[in-house]
Design brief:
The structure holds 2 protein chains of 2 kinds.
Chain A (H helix, E strand, L loop, with lengths): L6 H20 L5 H28 L2 H21 L8 H24 L8 H32 L1 H9 L4 H4 L1 H21 L7 H8 L4 H30 L13
Helix pairs in contact in A: 1-2, 3-4, 3-5, 4-5, 4-10, 5-8, 5-10, 8-10, 9-10
Chain B lengths: L2 E13 L5 E14 L5 E4 L6 H8 L7 E6 L2 E2 L5 H7 E4 L10 H10 L8 H14 L16 H13 L5 E5 L7 H18 L2 E6 L2 H7 L2 E6 L2 E7 H6 L4 H12 L1
Parallel strand pairs in B: 3-8, 3-9, 6-7, 7-8
Antiparallel strand pairs in B: 1-2, 1-4, 4-5, 9-10
Helix pairs in contact in B: 3-5
The chains are: A mainly alpha, B alpha/beta.
Chain lengths: 256, 253
């Protein structure tokens, strides 16, 4: 059923990148270097992940699965931090806890309540599902923190005006809190709206390519969309609820 | 006694050349009282800590050491939200919230947690206040981004007055006004004091204003009080060389 790709096939695939690099040189876009490095990184990273997963799948041990999850988690937190222009106090624990609850709760519901995986650590399910939830939540959380921090800084005078008019710090930033969560959710909501019409999601395409019936693939994809929405929402709401507090004292004044 | 400042000091972080930050005094060992029913002026050159002093009064910020009493009780003993209801603050640069003047007014009173007047009654009250501050009634329905800075300053004052505070902290409320408007504004302030029996603490650097408003003054230079007493006395008979220089500088303006 499945036509397996050989390394020679992939080597020919490099021709596609060569076309892109050629166009970049021809149009003087100066993207050649980035394209080249990106192509190499894609190759190395994915091959490495493939072999690691292969090992984890063959060990079939709970600790190997947990180790992979923790590694993914660490990389997600690190990536979020790297994208921030501003830092606030306790940023790392707040990101970690928000992501952990958001993705953990969603993973639990999807894998154990809905799909009912046996055994509980079954890597074939747990790892790719966590990957999708975590990847999307990571992007959402990164957008939410960036929006939260930059707006609180930009609107400092408006916030102090509200505080002077008797608002609590929570009330004084309520519009910023919703704008941060909206920023996190917009990509997810857009994909909920257009999935299947404008784009065929990667997971579904992958399943179909590897021989799964489109109906099964579509059902999984629906579940994937819902779990991403839930996880991004939970993570970003938890994050902004904790995050804004880092800017204020208990007496509704800006920390210095 | 409205306010008592007891050895109040406040530091602020200052960036040094070696990209490290040190904390320098912005206010140092303030020791003075502010009486009720007498306007209190805070005088001094820019950068002397006047604004910080006002912000301490409604706890937008807290001192690093020392204590401030409000009506005999430590500021920290009050609930902050209640404190800011009793002590109104009008910042030097008037900040309008999005929307109309009316929605700004509504925001100001919605946090008051008491029986709110119904729509029409409230709008009447707002219009009366606008008239009082020499603003035309239809202003109530204007979007705030249409207003000039001077108009915004008066709307910001009205927004604070609607909350019926016992004390109003005013930070250079006439900084964006021309001479005529300034004079009218000061008349309004005096009217407020007389008719609403409002306690007022005002930052200014203008000698004319200080003379019109009278009351008590403190002169703040480099974060320290260099002189205090009735404004007229400070003006006519400054006790320190630095106050003399400051007053002469004000005269030059």
């Amino acid at each position: 059923m499945i036509i397996e790709l050989s390394y020679i096939d992939l080597f020919i695939g490099i021709g596609l990148i060569v076309i892109a690099i050629g166009l970049s040189i021809y149009s003087r876009l100066q993207l050649e270097k980035d394209l080249f490095v990106g192509a190499v990184r894609t190759f190395v990273q994915l091959i490495a992940v493939g072999y690691v997963l292969n090992i984890v799948f063959s060990i079939e041990a709970w600790y190997a699965v947990i180790a992979v999850l923790l590694l993914m988690f660490g990389i997600a937190v690190h990536t979020i931090l790297g994208r921030q222009r501003y830092r606030f106090k306790n940023m790392i624990p707040i990101i970690t806890v928000s992501l952990m609850i958001g993705t953990g709760l969603t993973l639990f519901i999807v894998v154990y309540v809905i799909i009912q995986v046996e055994p509980w650590y079954s890597p074939q399910y747990v790892i790719p599902i966590m990957g999708m939830i975590l990847g999307n939540s990571m992007n959402g959380v990164a957008l939410a923190i960036d929006r939260l921090s930059s707006e609180i800084r930009e609107k400092r005078e408006i916030i102090e005006t509200r505080l002077s008019l008797g608002a609590t710090s929570r009330e004084a930033v309520s519009d910023i809190i919703s704008s941060a969560v909206r920023a996190a959710m917009i990509p997810t909501i857009n994909s909920l709206m257009t999935v299947g019409i404008v784009s065929l999601p990667g997971m579904m395409t992958g399943q179909i390519l590897s021989g799964t019936s489109p109906i099964i693939a579509v059902k999984y994809q629906i579940l994937v969309m819902y779990m991403i929405a839930a996880s991004v929402m939970i993570s970003s709401v938890l994050l902004v609820q904790r995050g804004y507090k880092q800017y204020f004292t208990a007496h509704h004044q800006f920390k210095e | 006694m409205l306010f008592q400042f007891r050895h109040v000091s406040k530091k602020k972080p200052v960036e040094t050349q070696k990209s490290s930050t040190v904390r320098e005094y912005i206010l140092h060992d303030l020791l003075f009282n502010i009486n009720a029913h007498v306007p209190q002026l805070i005088l001094g050159p820019s950068g002397s800590g006047k604004t910080t002093l006002l912000r301490l009064c409604n706890r937008l910020t807290d001192p690093d050491s020392g204590e401030i009493l409000f009506q005999g009780q430590a500021l920290t003993a009050y609930d902050v939200i209640e404190l800011r209801t009793r002590i109104g603050y009008v910042a030097q640069v008037p900040v309008m919230l999005d929307g109309s003047v009316l929605s700004n007014f509504k925001y100001a009173i919605q946090k008051l947690n008491k029986n709110l007047p119904n729509g029409e009654e409230f709008e009447e009250e707002c219009k009366e206040l606008l008239r009082f501050l020499n603003l035309p009634e239809p202003f109530l329905y204007y979007e705030t981004d249409r207003l000039s800075v001077g108009e915004k300053q008066r709307v910001a004052l009205a927004r604070t007055l609607l909350r019926k505070p016992e004390v109003v902290l005013l930070d250079e409320p006439t900084s964006a006004l021309d001479r005529t408007s300034t004079f009218r504004f000061l008349e309004t302030i005096n009217k407020l004091r007389d008719e609403m029996n409002l306690n007022m603490i005002m930052v200014t650097h203008s000698i004319d204003q200080a003379k019109i408003l009278g009351g008590n003054g403190i002169v703040l230079v480099g974060g320290s009080v260099v002189e205090q007493g009735p404004v007229a006395e400070i003006m006519n008979n400054p006790q320190t060389e630095i106050t003399k220089q400051f007053i002469e500088g004000m005269l030059d303006n």
